[in-house]
Amino acid sequence: MNFKALYPVLQSYTYLNTAYSGILSKPLLDWRNNHDQDFLKRGSTFRLQQQEVMQETRQNLARLFRAKASNTFLVPNFSFGFNTFLNGLEGPQRFLLLQEDYPSVNYPVQSRGYECDYVAVDHQLEENLIANIKSFKPSVLALSLVQYISGIKIDFESIKKIKSMFPDLLIVADGTQFCGTAEFNFEASGLDVLISSGYKWMLGGFGNGFVFIKDKINELLYTKAQSANMPTEPFLLNRGILSLYFEPGHQDTLSFGSLNHSILFLEKTGLSFIENQISQLSKKARKAFTERGLLDLAVTQRKSHSSIFNLSISATVAEKLQEANILFSARGNGSRVSFHFYNTEEDLNHLLEVIDKNS
Fold it and tell me: How many CB atoms lie within 10 A of CB 176?
C-alpha cells in the first residue's frame, strides 16, 4: 500500500525519523482546519462539546489498547503524566530503572531523591531485570518499553513473568516509542501503569498523551487527597480524584481531537496490519545492518527487536544521508533510523545505497 498521497512529506523525503516525530496526514490537516474554522465562527459555543470530545477520545484509546475507559486519562505528554503519577506516590519507594533510559523516565525519579538501582540494557535485559529485582527488592520498576537510543524492546512475556514472580512490584512503563506500532492488551499485560505521548508512532500531533491505570492502582495514588473534600462546582461534579490530578484545568480539543482522529485511522488501517508491515521491514533492515557491522552486539544478539536502529556510521556518511534527503536523528554515539508502516523496502534500499557508496 502506498501512503504518499496521505502523507505528503513522504514525497519529499525518505522519512526514517518517526522515533523523533510522527508525520501529519492530509485528512488530519483537513480535520484540524475545520476544527479551527468552527472555533473562529462559534467562539465560546465551540467549547460546549469539549467533554464529549474528551470522553470519545478516552473510549477510543481504551478500545484500541484494551484498557478501561474509566481508568484512562488524557495528558499533554508522557512527562506530565509520569510526574503526576510520581507526585501521587506516598511514603518511601525504591526504584529500579534502566541505564541510559529516556531522561523523562529516569530524571524525575532521581531528582525526587528516591533510592535507585540500574539495570544494564543488553541482550540479557530480561534476565538482568529479574536478578536485580531479587537483589535490590524495589517497590517500583519504571522503564521504557522500547529504548529510545538503541531500539531494544522489552519482551512482554517477560514482563508478565516478572509480575507473576513479584506481584507486589509496581510496574510503570513509558509507551511513547511503542504505542501505535502493534496490537496491545493493557489489561492482560503485566503492567500496572502505561503512559505515552501521542506525537510519535500514534501520529496524533503534538500536545497529547494518555495514561492507563489498573484498578488496584487507584487506591495507591493521592491517598491523602482521597479523604479530603471534593470540589462542589457543577462543572467538576462526577470527577474522580485521579481525573482532577491527571486532567487539571482546560484541555485542548485541537490536540486531543487530533489524537482521536489518528486513533480512528490506526483502527481502520488495523494494528495487526501495521505490526506486520513494521515487522517485515524491520527484519530486513536488521539483517542488512548486521551484515554491514552497523549495530551494537546488544541488538544483534537479541531474539527480536523494534523498528528503531542506531547505526554506527561516520560523520561523513551521516552528512551524505542528509544530502540524500534521508531524515534521521543523531542519538547516543550513532545515527538513529526508524521504520513505520508507511515506510517501504525502497526506503531501506535507498538508505543502504547511500551508506554503501560512502563507507
Answer: 27
